Amino acid sequence: MQVRSRLLPLLRSPLLGELLAWLYLHPDQNYSVTELARRFKSSQSTISREADHLAKAGLVREERRGTMRLLQADLDNPLARPLTELLALTYGPAAVLADVLPPVPGVDAAYIYGSWAARYAGEAGPPPRDVDVLVIGDADEDDLADAARRAERELGREVNIHRVAAAAWHAKSDDDPFLASVRSRPAYPIIEPGVHP
Fold first, then answer.
1. Could you tell me which residues are beta bridge partners of residue 31?
2. First to last CA, the chain
3. Could you name the CATH architecture of 14-90?
4. How far, in Å, CA of 128 to CA of 165, rounded?
5. Which long-range contacts (CB under 8 A, 24 or more apart) does 65-70 make?
6. What residue segments make up the domains of the chain, in order of their start?
7. What percent of the chain clears pLDDT 90, i.e. is strictly above it?
8. How far apart are CA 150 and CA 175, in angstroms?
9. Which one of 67, 82, 167, 178 is at 20 to 30 Å from 106 when CA atoms are compared?
């Protein structure tokens, strides 16, 4: 059964929100169906089916290069500007943080937690007012603050980055109430351990 989007209830699924946000928040690039399927851990047929609907609606452009199908946001559509703003406010954190965090040295893993992750996971509640990010590793606090400010400019909302050492994150004890709380609630992976882009 397909889960409806809690971040943007107009959409029928979180995957559609992620796909649109990725394309509209990276408008100068085109992506293959294969790349998008890998990024969103979905099948190529599912991404291709969503692309068919979006192309028919005039929301994405498609280009064929041999057997490769490339997709790009269609910025000539009159809905492009308001849709981009809406996507930045809803699914944007995943797309924007996937750009700003990987270049920061010392980030072993990163997750969005808190209200945004809860809505993404399907929990009912009000729209998130900010974005909470847990970074695991020894990244410099100033570099993380710069990344948070860059993300805030694109998202139009506060981004709070909390850094923890890898040893503290991997410790199995619940001595730290903050980490115990984060572990017990939904989290959305931006950078998974050992899968640094």
1. 71
2. 31
3. Orthogonal Bundle (1.10)
4. 26
5. 68/32, 68/33, 68/34, 69/32, 69/33, 70/30, 70/31, 70/32
6. 14-90, 94-191
7. 80
8. 33
9. 178
Question: Both tokens of residue 140?
Answer: 């410099």
Model confidence pLDDT, tens digit, residues 103-112: 999 999 999 9
Q: Is 33 helix (H, G, I), strand (E, B) or coil?
A: helix
Q: What would the pLDDT profile of 103-153 be if each residue is shown by its tens digit?
A: 999 999 999 999 999 999 988 888 899 999 999 999 999 999 999 999 999
**Placement of tokens 């995957």 in the chain:** 15
What is the per-residue pLDDT across 53-102, written as a single tens digit (0 to 9) for each?
A: 999 999 999 999 998 999 999 999 999 999 999 999 899 999 999 999 99
Residue 122: which residues within 8 A CB-CB, separation 6 or more? 3, 4, 6
CB 83 within 8 A of CB 54: no
Query: What are the two backbone dihedrals, phi and then psi, of residue 102, each rounded to the nearest 5 degrees?
Result: -55, -35
H/E run at residue 22 = helix 14-24
Region 94-191: CATH code: 3.30.460.10
